[in-house]
Amino acid sequence: MIITFALIGIVYALGLHIPLPGIDLEAFASPKYSVDSDMLSRISILALGLTPLFAALGLAEIARLIAFSWLKQKDEQDRNTVLGAAIVIVIALAVAAMQAYAISGGLGATPLVADNMTGFTMLTIASCVGATAFTIFLSDRIRIAGLRDGLWPLYSLPILLSLPNNVIASVEMTRTGAVPSTQWLIVAVYLVLSVAAVVVTAFLWRSACHEAGTIAEETIEPREILIWPPVLAITAAGYVLAFFAFIAPNVIAAVQGLRLEVKNGANIRLIAIASIIAFIQILLLVSGALVSAFIQLPLSPGSIGIIVLTITALGFRNWDTVEVEGSSEPHVSAQTAS
């Protein structure tokens, strides 16, 4: 599994270094752009990253929670599972096409596009849509204990790939006096406490799932609930549903996602623990926003990044255990099911 993750990381890193067709590499090599170490990834075929898929999953989850009750039963009906996955993939590709169109318009107004380039917009759209489809394909190749799909490990790859440059940039900023050295201590304390908080949520969730009898002893608890609700909250914020999406997924996923058939006492305990997890996640998001606002060092991967990296690492720790039931499902259906 670790070897597979490393190989996919290499493939993803190569994709971040392949520029969109029509980019003038001579213009890109000018000092105006070479000073920005992240510029290449922003004009690569993987410039959109996972944003189209997150947008599609967010819309599907909001629809499931609000209106379309049949989506809640898709785990029990294979036809609905396949249909739900297909709908999310189509939406993701459509979002990728729209975002690629916007990118082509922005790049077209810069010297980065070759003067003799024709059809740049169509080539950009085709490249980004194809890259999004390839990203979905890659996410289905990673299997990690407790995670039904490779979406989150794939999310962590750009963070890990950018880590060396961020460390070098932070050291340089400190050396030149651009930021005080005390910021290193603040970031270190924040990272340690945040990772510890995520580990605590994972322990609480595992304890609740096993005590409630919702999963078998030899399986790993579904850990998407520790990641997806805060991501959904951020996604839904743009749709004026931030409050509902922030609170409801933690409770609803806890009560419905595992199809609980336990006694009232255990059910109440599970809901209580889910509420504690939600509170910790809120603290992580708020503290991450404060650190980003007042700390200039690019060391921290952000609250979502910390959650994803920690849960992924916990999955690697359980590499020799049985994965959560249903881990062979397509990632889009498995994600919305959790």
Give a brief description:
The protein is an all-alpha fold. It has helices at 2-15, 25-28, 31-34, 39-42, 51-66, 78-108, 120-139, 151-175, 182-212, 228-237, 242-257, 264-294, 302-317, 331-337. It is built from 14 helices and no strands.
> What's the mean pLDDT score?
76
Q: What best-fitting shape do the alpha-carbon axes yield?
A: globular
User: Structural class, from helix and strand content?
Assistant: mainly alpha
Total helical elements: 14
Rg, please? 21 Å
User: In what range is the share of β-strand residues?
Assistant: under 5%
Find the count of extended strands (DSSP E, 2+ residues). Answer: 0
Unreliable stretches (pLDDT < 50, length at least 5) are 70-79, 240-264, 320-338
Report the order of strands and helices. HHHHHHHHHHHHHH
Distance between the termini: 22 Å
Helix percent band: 55-70%
Major sheet: none
Overview of the structural elements:
This protein is an all-alpha fold and 338 residues long. 68% of the residues lie in helices and 0% in strands. The chain is globular and about 65 Å long.
Secondary structure layout plus pairing:
Blueprint: H1 2-15, H2 25-28, H3 31-34, H4 39-42, H5 51-66, H6 78-108, H7 120-139, H8 151-175, H9 182-212, H10 228-237, H11 242-257, H12 264-294, H13 302-317, H14 331-337
Helix pairs in contact: 1-8, 5-6, 5-10, 6-7, 7-8, 8-13, 9-12, 9-13, 10-11, 11-12
